[in-house]
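does this look right to u?? PMV version
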Amino acid sequence: MRQEAIGEAHSKLILVGEHIVVYNKPAIAIPCPLTLRARIKERNGEITISSQFYTGSIYDMPDRAKGILECVKRSFELCNKPMEGVQIEIQSDIPVGRGLGSSAASATAIVRGIYKYFNKDITTEELFSLVELAESYAHGRPSGIDMMAVVREEPIMYQRTEGASSLIAPKPFHVVVADTGTIGDTKKAVSHVKKMRSQRPWEIDHTMAQIEEIVIKAKESILTGDSELLGSLLTRNHEKLRELGVSVSSLDRLVEVAIRLGALGAKLTGGGMGGCIIALAKDIESAKTISTGLMENGATKVWYFSTNSKNWFTVHSGICVD
Ligand code: PMV
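got this back:
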């Protein structure tokens, strides 16, 4: 056992295919360089947790964070340790409720931190099953894409029954992420789509089939490094998400602004009904211009980054804040 250990996880962006992935269709997610760290420190007595949103006993956390309690309990069990004697400090760059996978990243970082603290190795399967415990509280019926995406360092194509496969791009992409400043509501958006599907099955299944085609083409465009095609597919996917009723005017506005400023394409990312948009730029200069323009047109925060073709690690990045 160590006196202190740190577990880390990065955020994720859904490039295309959110919502249809709940229905066992494919989607593509990419790692996003915003990170979250969980510091596990020795302390006498009950486990405490401290973060931007909550500080206190792990047992008194608000209901929406109860999944974390289950996941910590199980992690201690699997490490054969009594559930006591540490404090967990969360430090995060990932905004909450914006479709960037902050809940999956918290659970992932905490589990990694606990295992490191007890000097125990963790298998990928073990990590997934623990994060899944936390995620099923957060999302109700998660497809699993968030947790898969936060533990992978490269873009993945994901399907519920097939799992994830890596997509290696031959050249960099330039990505802009802009925050509407409003919390998205994945649970509400997922149940909205479910309701629409039960009311108008033919129409919604048709839209979902069109999104699936977009995902298949997006996969090809990543593998061939065709950022223009990928950009146009993002914009098309946004239109389809609007048809599913999960966009809102603040997201539509940022998408329009990004395209007007020269983005190759843009869309909402994640569950929708608030949260963030993702835009693709032709180069890093254009990404900066789009970022500044988005800040002038209502975004509350914008991040931009370029990816390295081999492992998708960030090579240039920046942030614009109000
Ligand atoms: O909003 P996020 O980051 O949790 O993304 C959810 C993606 C959905 O497809 C809408 C739901 C899911 O479980 O896949």
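The pocket of PMV is lined by residues 14, 18-19, 21-22, 99, 101, 139, 142-143, 145-146, 184, 186, 190, 270-271 (CB under 6 Å). idk if thats expected tbh
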